[in-house]
Amino acid sequence: MRHWRAGALCSLLAIAVACANEAAPVGGPPDPVPPRLLEITPESGRTVQRPSQVEFRFDEVVAERPSGAPSLEALVMISPRDGDPRVRWRRNSITVRPRRGWRDSTTYVVTLLPGLADLRGNVRDSSSTTVFSTGGPIADTRIRGAAFDWAAGTPLSNALVMAITRPADARADSAIYITRTTGTGAFELPYVRRGTVTVYALNDQNNSYSVDTREMYDSVTVSLADSVRIEFYAFVRDSIGPQPQTVSVRDSVTIAVSLTRAVHPADTIDASRFTVWGPDSQSVPIVFAQRQATFDSAQAAAGIPAPAADSVPAQPDTLPAADTLAVAPADSIAAADSVEAPRFNRPVPASAVILRFGTPLAPETTYEVRSRALRNLLGVSADGVTRFTTPAPPEPTPPDSGSSLPAGRS
Question: Exposed end of the chain (fewer CB within 10 Å): N or C?
Answer without folding.
Answer: C
